[in-house]
Amino acid sequence: MNKIVEILPDKAALIQRSLALVISKIQTAVQERGMCTIALSGGSTPKPLYEALAGQDLPWRSLQVFWGDERYVPSDHPDSNEGMARKAWLDQVKIPKFNIHPVPTDEATPALAAYKYEEELRQMFQANLGDFPALDIILLGMGDDGHTASLFPHTEALEVGDRLIAVGNKNGEPRITFTAPLINHARCVIFVVAGESKRPALAQVFATEADDLAYPSRLIQPQGELWWLLDQAAGEELAQADPTNPVKTE
């Protein structure tokens, strides 16, 4: 695993750095493999990143878009990760509709939605049972509690090691989520994290020893590159805590 940590001066700089990195990774994937597979995150932090991507001239027809997690709500629901990404980005560019792979939240149960999404991923990547495909880019955020995707502290989804997709749980509300093993097979995982409220969890995630089940972002140790892009508000204490840590500030 190649781990890179960068602390940017503010959220605007964080989004610009994230944009440059995502563009670079898309272009590299298309050059090397003829297409780029990317999984999107939800939440408020990536929205300006998606809006910025909408203004780029990229090989949209070579992009295959997935979601790392989704709330079990219709796509037109205000809480839908799909809906947010479509409005901010995907509806603004010429991506063929068949290149967009949303979580099927219209299934009868969350378990069935997770099964169907796993089947779609396996078909897309021609992956047999027991195999984990390698997405080119997985975008992640991190909550104040240290969760990422819909892998919440001390929930059953953290224990799933043999599937691509699991049913997450936040306070009794079902979510559909990539599993940690699927995320860890990615060529490039990019965390984009902003805000002072993230500092306590980041301290635990970056600690030499801590409870993985209490801070699920610790479980993300991909075989490819791992990028942590933080704004100053989130990352300041990390830089101060260990001057020998390979943290790049800009």
Note the main attributes of this structure.
250 residues; alpha/beta; Rossmann fold; 7-stranded parallel sheet; 3-stranded antiparallel sheet; 10 strands; 21% strand; globular
Strand content: 15-25%
Biggest sheet details: 7 strands, parallel
- Helix-strand makeup class: alpha/beta
Strand order of the main beta sheet, please? 3-2-5-8-9-1-10
CATH fold annotation: Rossmann fold
CATH class call: Alpha Beta
Count helical runs: 7
The overall average pLDDT, rounded, is: 94
Q: Give the uncertain stretches in residue-range form.
A: none
Structure notes:
The chain has one domain: Rossmann fold, CATH 3.40.50.1360. The protein has helices at 11-33, 47-53, 81-88, 110-125, 180-184, 199-205, 232-241; strands spanning 2-8, 36-40, 63-67, 69-71, 137-140, 165-170, 173-178, 188-193, 225-231, 247-249. The strands form two sheets. The protein has a seven-stranded parallel β-sheet, sandwiched between helices. It has seven helices and ten strands. It is globular and about 45 Å long. 30% of the residues lie in helices and 21% in strands. The protein is an alpha/beta fold and 250 residues long. The longest helix is centred in the first third of the chain and has 23 residues, at 11-33.
